[in-house]
Each structure stands twice: as C-alpha cells, then as structure tokens.
Amino acid sequence: MNKFFCIFLSVILCWGEVDWSSEQEISLKRNQEHKMKLLVGANDVRELAFHWTLFVDGGLVFLAKYDSFNHQMILFDDYKKNAFRINLSKEGKRGIVSPYVTVFFEKYDEKTQSVTFKIAVYGDVFVQ
To answer: Which residues pair with 76 in a beta bridge?
Structure first.
C-alpha cells in the first residue's frame, strides 16, 4: 500500500502545473541575439544566448549557446514541439528536479517578421 501511494503521489506531482521562478517575454527579429546571465545556486554565473535564423512552414530554426555548447533545433507553433529546455546543473538530490530554463516559441509576426519567445526558469536560479 505504501509503495502504491508513493507512485500515485509522484505521478500527481509530475502532472501538476509548473511553478516558474521567473518568466519573461521577448520579441526578436531574425539573427537578433538575446543574452541573459543566470545565477545558478549561490555563486555560479552562466550565460545563455539564443537567436533564430529561419521561419518556414510553421517551423522556426532556433540556435542557443549555453556552457560553450551550441544547440540547434526546429521549434513548431504547436503546443508539443514549441519549447527547448536546458538543464542548468547536473546536481540534484534524489527526487528533486534540478534547475532548468525553458524557451517557448509563442508566435511569429509576419508583419514585423519577429518572433515572440517566453523564457521560463524553474528552480534556484536568478536571471540578471
């Protein structure tokens, strides 16, 4: 019975809505880079930079750089393929989710040819 209760509780916690530490919305034109400094934990300052290069058939080519590692992916405007998540630390106690940042592709404005992103941070992270 106790084992069943623990599994049931963990499933409910995983399906719950995320309580973001901070959220912000930005709009970027093609090849316009956005940089942000992230204070992870007590004294670990890291930089996240990202931009987009192409929007075709609902797909957005998104490029990001974190910890001197380049990431490239295609984000779509449907709800399941519209986000990119970066884990900010590999540390984490068992059962506790380590801090992360998620960049959501919100919309593409054809008139201004700009993209709106929502940046959401979870965990012990301060955005500078």
So the answer is: 59
